[in-house]
Amino acid sequence: MTAPNVLFLAIDSLRADAVFEPAPPTPNIDRYATGGAAFRHCVSTTTSTTPSFSSMLTGCYPPKHGVRGLQGYRLASSLTTMAEAFAAGGYNTHAEVTGPLLPQTGVLRGFADANHRQGYKVPFFEWRDSVTDRMHSYVNPWFMLLHIWEVHRPYRAPPDFTKRWDKAGYHAAVAATDEWLQPIYDACGDNTIVVITGDHGEDYPDTPLQQKLIRLARKSRKTLKLKRWIPALDQKFQSLAVGHGFALHEHLVRVPLIIAGPGISPVVVDEQVRHVDLFPTLCDLCGLDTPSGIDGRSLRPLMENGSLAEEPAYMEAVGVKLEGNRIVGARTRDWKLLRAGASKPALYKLNGGGSPNEKRNLYSRYPEVAQPLESFIAQVEESTIVTEDAPLSVEDEATIEQHLRDLGYL
Questions:
Q1: pLDDT over 90, % of the chain
Q2: In the 3-class helix/strand/coil scheme, how is the chain assigned residue by residue?
Q3: Long-range contacts of 128-132 (CB under 8 A, 24+ apart)
């Protein structure tokens, strides 16, 4: 058999429970999950899009790849990207992306063609027919990154396309996205490895009271023009409606990861895996060389019912609303340690993926658990790659800032 094609589908804001729980219905994704490797405990490196993709596409944590937020950073040129590795291995590389994944960030380096489409004020799945047509023209073997925005808030699912911010609206967007992706899956053909994941999770109000508070805050900001007159209150109200990027809660860092296709047998993996593992795993599956010095490792042993020694996951929250005050963390299946600035670290018991307790700080009670996780964070933070990359130009900075403003981040 010839080298397999690869579809890397990243559904923005897709939570793990949106795929691995009964609701919402996702029959197309379920078909790949039951027919391939379903990783039920995959951890996103960050809860913001651009740095998350930087980790997936380099296999490195943020201190090494250099992208620590949505603006002001460019991917380190000294690192080999996934697209560059596949291109060197004889693949034709294509990217279809949206949101903040602009070429100015360096994240799209290595793609022979990269189409960035508008993520706001556009019809639901308006891009699908043109992308499907281009897929039919791809020359084998091909590697394609497809990043889609339909699950990102505000949720506007058919048939009424009304803007929503609640759980029901999110579930409707996920279910519709799963259905409307069918032509993309059909265009892949049989000799294609399909990867499905989310770049991070999502936060939405769970109760009617929370929904009312969000609506009140949104109306107050608009009517009273709080950003102009009381910026601090405006920022506080705005934080109520932020869907991700502001924290490292479980529903923000746990995402689905599914890898299915030729040569991949059905398996459910309950061990913790990480987004940085995706790059070396795909290289392994496609017979390509994995760059040295990356933070991830191939998950192929787990896909073949083998085992791997447990390794922690490093995480960052670097959302715009944190104003540069990032939150860093380390996670295992049982524990999560978080550190925000000079404040006391927090240690939470996750109970092996069962019912996590993210309200009770056990840092003082379990120093023997906290210390190795703190050491791991320090080790990752010391792995910074020194580069001589030129800073972003004034023009590039302005382009990214305007785009983030259009998307509602600023």
A1: 72
A2: CCCCEEEEEEECCCCCHHHHCCCCCCHHHHHHHHHCEEEEEEECCECCHHHHHHHHHHCCCHHHHCCCCCCCCCCCCCCCCHHHHHHHCCCEEEEEECCCCCHHHCCCCCCCEEEECCCCCCCCCCCHHHHHHHHHHCCCCEEEEEEECCCCCCECCCCCCCCECCHHHHHHHHHHHHHHCHHHHHHHCCCEEEEEECCCCCCCCCCHHHHHHHHHHHHHHHHHCHHHHCHHHHHHHHHCCCCCCCCCCHHHHEEEEEEECCCCCCEEECCCEEHHHHHHHHHHHHCCCCCCCCCCCCCHHHHCCCCCCCCCEEEEECCHHHCCCCEEEEECCCEEEEEECCCCCEEEECHHHCCCECCCCCCCCCHHHHHHHHHHHHHHHCCCCCCCCCCCCHHHHHHHHHHHHHHCCC
A3: 128/180, 128/183, 128/184, 129/183, 131/96, 131/184, 132/183, 132/184, 132/187
**pLDDT, tens digit, for every residue of 259-289?**
999 999 999 999 999 999 999 999 999 999 9
Q: Is the pLDDT of residue 310 over 90?
A: yes
Read off the pLDDT band of 24 (50, 70, 90): very high
Q: Is the pLDDT of residue 139 over 70?
A: yes
Q: Which of 410, 393, 321 is nearest to 72 (CA)?
A: 393
End-to-end CA distance of the chain: 49
Q: Could you read off the pLDDT of 355-382 as tens digits, one per residue? A: 888 989 999 999 999 999 999 999 999 9
Architecture label for domain 5-204+243-303? 3-Layer(aba) Sandwich (3.40)
The ranges assigned to domains in the chain are 5-204+243-303
pLDDT band with cut points at 50, 70 and 90 for residue 237: low
